[in-house]
Amino acid sequence: MALIVDVFPARQDNYGYLVHDEATGRTAAIDAPEAKAIRDALTRRGWTLSDIFITHHHIDHVEAIPELKSAFGARVVGPRAEADKIEGLDELVGDGDVVTLGETTFEVMDAPGHTLGHIVFYDRDGGHLFSADALFSLGVGRMFEGKPGPMWEGVKRLRDLPDETLVYCGHEYTQSNARFALSVDPDNVALQQRAADVDALRAEGKPTIPFKLGEDKRANPFLRADAPELAAYYGLEGKEPSEVFAAIRKGKDNF
Questions:
Q1: pTM, two decimal places
Q2: 95 annotated ligand binder
Q3: Does the annotation place 60 within a ligand binding site?
């Protein structure tokens, strides 16, 4: 039996996700950005919420926990390293742990940087990665709490996953990320094509999520911080990729 993923908008530019294990009927929300959006999606699908998987402590990812937990009695799983910042967690997890939803297994991976305790959930068998704000389509999250070195190492681990992996991130930022990416990597043909595809999707009001990780590996400058052309752009030839990654992140912050 398969895992069904339902994608829906939440808040201003968040994405909400419901993941439904067909074999058992268990349904989890990936993060809890907005109770109404999640309730509406559950009603539309005819599913009942059994679990909530939290990636990090920011309010736009946890705000709906109390209401949903009260209404559904859902089990709430979240990052051990941020347990003091998130109310209502029932199960604490970190790198290397496994979370089950019926017959579906999610591997937990640390992805520090956006927040220090940020985690992602990876369904290896189904090829789904729920990256929240650690990895965006053509970008990464702002480095609010972490340092470039550990964040780059976390990004590289995600980059090592199979090309066919479908990535479900936390926000619809792809179009603005594409504009920045083209400004620092203008000769990248894969990026040029991706940007054109993104513009077409957004013109039709369609989401750019999920995206294939393999396409992002070729087009996302943050996944290419060890590429010579990006080091050259920033005048950092011969420097560590983490320094190039930091320069790209600073560039995006100021773009």
A1: 0.97
A2: no
A3: yes
